[in-house]
Design goal:
The longest helix is centred in the middle third of the chain and has 18 residues. Helix 1 packs parallel to helix 2. Helix 2 links the parallel strand 4 and strand 5. By secondary structure, this protein is α+β, with helices and mostly antiparallel strands. It is built from two helices and six strands; from the N terminus they run βββαβαββ. It has a single domain, classed as 2-Layer Sandwich (60s Ribosomal Protein L30, Chain: A), CATH 3.30.1330.40. It has a four-stranded mixed beta sheet with strand order 3-6-4-5. Strands 1-2 form a two-stranded antiparallel sheet. Helix content is about 25%, strand content about 30%.
Amino acid sequence: MAITLVNPEGLPEINAYRQVAIATGSRLVFVAGQVAWDADGVTVGAGDLAAQVERCYLNVATALAAAGATFADVAKLTVYVVDWTPGMMPLLQEGIARAAAKLGVTAVPPASLLGVAALDVPEHLVEIEATAVLG
């Protein structure tokens, strides 16, 4: 594998993601921000953050597969959430857990979570982009 995920001693262990991704591969894959659209461009889970997070993760997985990659190859995720507040964390985690169960993902790569005012379409609550490394 081209990616090793670790929580180094001296940094807090956070269950939602690993603090560091060590990339040893040579081919980079950049996945554009994925929103909660199905294959026909219809928004999935309007008004439901957990459902939209799940769909975004599944869309990232589809994009990765097109490049011959999986979540095991992801070195970094960036998550943008509209009008983020800490009280939204359980919904975010629920969506991640549902997607992880469907994808068979266990360890989560380093991630940044950013609250934003809006996304491209008013009913989109979340957007997720990924960087992967292939050997």
